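Newbie here. two chains, one complex. Structure please?
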Amino acid sequence: MSAIALYVHIPFCKKKCYYCDFNSYSGKQHLIEEYIGALKKEIKMYKHVIDGYKVSTIFFGGGTPSILEGDQIAIIMDTMGKYYDIEKDAEISIEANPGTLNYNKLKKYYAGGINRLSIGLQACQENLLRTLGRIHSFEDYSKNLNEAREAGFTNINTDLMFSLPGQREKDLEECLEKVVSLGIPHISAYSLIIEEGTLFGNWVRNKTIVLPDEEIQLKMYHNTIGYLKEKGYIHYEISNFAKPGFQCEHNMVYWHNKPYIGLGAGSHSYFNKKRFNNVGSIEKYMDLVSNKKIPIENEIDVSIRDEISETMFLGLRLTEGISIKEFIERFNISPFEIYEKQIKKFSTQGLLEYDKTHIRLTQKGIDLSNIVFRDMLLD
Amino acid sequence: MPDDRQERTRNFSIIAHIDHGKSTLADRLIEHTGIISQREMQDQVLDNMDLEKERGITIKLRTVRLVHRDKDGKEYYLNLIDTPGHVDFTYEVSRSLAACEGAILIVDASQGIEAQTLANVYLALEQDLEIIPVINKIDLPSARPDEIKREIEDIIGLDAVEAPLISAKEGLNIEDVLEHIVKRVPAPAGNEDASLKALIFDSFYDSYRGVIAYVRIMEGKVKKGMKIKMMATDKEFEVIEVGVFSLEPIQVDSLKAGDVGYIAASIKDVRHCRVGDTITDALNPTPEPLPGYRKVNPMVYCGIYPAEGEKYEDIRDALEKLQVNDAALIFEPETSVALGFGFRCGFLGLLHMEIVQERLEREFNLDLITTAPSVIYKITKTDGEVFMIQNPANLPEPQEIRIMEEPIVKATIMVPDTYVGAVMELCQERRGEMKDMRYIDENRINLYYEIPLNEVIYDFFDALKSRTRGYGSLDYEFMGYRQSNLVKLDILINGEQVDALSFIVHHSKAYTRGKAICERLKDEIPRHQFAIPIQAAIGNKIISRETIKALRKDVLAKCYGGDITRKKKLLEKQKEGKKRMRQVGSVEVPQKAFMSVLKLDD
């Protein structure tokens, strides 16, 4: 029986962070109840679509999913349990912001089936948290962390950011040390991405904020990798680090270019050689679903060339690289046949390496991965 | 019944500065005489190329015959011969004017007379035309018709007391203009029984009938079946059709002295039908052609290359198509190490060049890389050989050159006196020599300069406009060659000389120009995995250097389920951009970088 991953989008936030370009809205919490109702209907719509698939992972992302009460999460989980075939030990994650959690809520999440917690800390220094527009402190984080452990959570991720305006190398070091010393088994460390249409996008353009020099950014990245490896973490994806056995299975679905269904406003799906996404507006989404209409806004066919291209640029994000065997099983052709020229060129340039089983980026290749990815797109 | 057609014919042009409302007035005249209903009337009927509409200037001449009934009910044929409105096309303007007996001079009621207006008035006066001043845009609040009338009298010396005050846009007093034309423009002279003399003032390529000559019959007559001869090129053809221009061409039996119309004679090559040439009867030729013919020669050259190498043949096809309607455009294949196969094209001037480039891009959907414009230099080698070059790449080694000469133009710049300082500074920067300076009224000045053409072709016009807040206007004509201390400046990217970026420059400018180009290229060339030196050199001597730092980080930190489509699009876009880059050694140079060196005045 084939496996499928589910993503559930919770587009609500108390306050939108300055760098954020996700589909999330603040000041719309009064719609939460109604939104959950719509989610339940959408879940039902997919019953026949994914009939015969076993749900291997579920991920509540946002927004701030932890804005939902324990019971609300439980209702969504129950509905999915009613219509879908969920694997017994499926990885079920929820994203959470410090300050939105408490012991009771966490207890209910856990009881509802959530078994992995991803906490967005981003930084430890007050000034940096303010710069980012975050509304919590490091103390909120450590308090919530204790409560989570008391409630039973052991599989916990913490998100961190670097290349932030005003961030010094030692700020990042301090942050990594603190999180590592708290025994967190999974760390995502992201270099800040400046997106058009965000406040940060405007501020960078008009020079209200200045990012660290490219060399400093790279040094921060390399220091992070060095330090976390030294502390026993596996650097398994460009921005992701885990103690053995704690890699995020849900995200591996994306990087292995496997199918997933997205539920909720603005969520994306990859299923049956198609990529499609729901309407982003909460109101439109609820309106369509309550009228028994499919809330899909856009759908594109994935040709075999697209699929190969995507498999390459997603798979190469993993430090393990692309499994040659799996590639051949999937496409009936060797990656060396399709990408002979590129593999040769990038190996010579020291960006790519391969052995009998895998093709992967070197560290330099990771630093310059877009150069490689571009060339992996087939015409 | 006696044929008094000649007596009832008026041939006239409209002359005006850009934007002073020539096309709009033409539209109104057409509308008023009723050959077209208002409903059918597209704005600005005469300017029928998209590009012209956007730029508000006329590139190709258009001609139309209006039928006007005056107050007494008498019908007149008014042939409106449109003229192109730019300094590059002075010769064509002069030929159009030669086909007329009169000209309407439009002067903007707030802006007054400008350099180009004056230049065109002088051209009209040379042809002995009756000039009817018309003051346009009197509906605007800033209109000052009385002052403008005085200006016309003081500066040009025309009686403007009775000048019609109109608003072409609002259709105000258009009738007045028609009355003036009938009353004041003389009927054409010319004997229809004399031997044929027809002046070609424009041509047009029709895929069925070949080149169509737009003519004014000065003497004699022409009809279908007649054998005609082009006097400049000595080619003979048989007339297959003659006609006049209503809004659509209408076939007629014959054209005779005084008429304006067209002749089709299965002419295959536009070069056999040159503007300014005289058509005569092949069996009974006139001994003397009409005066004023000259073969127009390109003054400005540049290389045109496809942004994607495979499109070379498409560019050739497009250039050939443009050339059938544009005898002044010339081109020949050339090869560049950096850009591959392309064409060296010659133009009348900068505007002509820009128009051709834009038409190639828009009408033929081509993506182009154009090299820096160049003029024609005259080289005398040490062995005494003299020759002309228009491609810097063909310049001999410095030690083989005895004398280099460059073309000089006479430039007339009209400017409000507050900007005189700015203009003098600009001209000085561009190696101009001031020859004279004259007040044309209390606050406007004409500056007369001799300037090397190669300084004018680098965005001089843009610089003039920006430094005079749009008030400065320019007119120039070729004067001759002058010896000059010129050097060839080469650009090296990562140690490799890029032929397409080489250009010839006065030695005093080499350093600043070289430095500016290196800086531009530094901004335009994307970073590579290695550092790239950008150098400007004269011979073996490096005069400027910039370095593009190596790219060390190009990575997307996040890529999850919702990001994949978007990130892939981003990568695809970057890949598309890369496709349009040219490989110079191991460096990929974007199309934009080649173009960025063309504009230097910030």
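Moderator note: The mean pLDDT of chain A is 96. Chain A has two domains: 2-255, 321-375. Thread marked as resolved.
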